[in-house]
Amino acid sequence: MQFAVRLKNLSLGLALVSSLTVAAASAQTLLGVNAQLDHNLDSKTAAPAQVVTAKLDGTVKTADGLRLPRGSELVGKVNAVKRSQNGGPASVTLEFSTAKLKDGKTIPVKVTVVAAYPHSAGGSSDGSDQALPPPPTQINNDTAVQQDAGALGKVALTSAVKNADSGTFTRADGDFRLGAGTYLQVGIAPSATSNISTAAE
Predict the structure, then answer these.
(1) Assuming Cys at both sites, which of 4, 22, 81, 120 could form a disulfide with 129, CB separation 3.0 to 4.6 Å?
(2) Could you tell me the domains of the chain?
(3) What is the model's pTM?
(4) pLDDT (tens digit, 9 = 90+) per residue, 128-154?
(5) Exposed, middle or buried by CB within 10 Å (0-12, 13-18, 19+), for 92?
(6) pLDDT in tens, 174-193
């Protein structure tokens, strides 16, 4: 069985979950949390191995002792870039592999991006911006995601927990930029090499 999410275009850039199938529990369960990109990410200028960071908006605690407090930093890199040629498709693939705590400790983690929204999705004081939906509580090992263009402007997202990377952002008709503050809803779990005792408090 597979957990699949397809987000359709709606006016005002709202996202609609059109299909949702929950699989049985698997060996690795990721916990959902919101994060925000620290810097702009542009398909025109991004390069493989470029460092990418995002800060957690919430705290992650797993049953096996991993604890990542709010404000912890996800550190990763650009795995692959395809720049638009003559208005054609562009894509950027990311892989977050480390969590950095406020005290400087680093922990290897598995991260999958399950949704993405513009910074404005956080809402404004006048309520004019779309609300940011909550991240899923748990994401199992069979989860695969396809978020169509609309929720994040003209940019789509594909990812799967089974993949080594965290997710691929794609625009069908040109280059794109994900601005600083872009919301990434991610699933996080300790990687096989994590020493989670360093993170438990």
Answers:
(1) 120
(2) 3-198 (2.40.128)
(3) 0.81
(4) 446 789 999 999 999 999 999 999 999
(5) buried
(6) 999 999 999 999 999 998 65
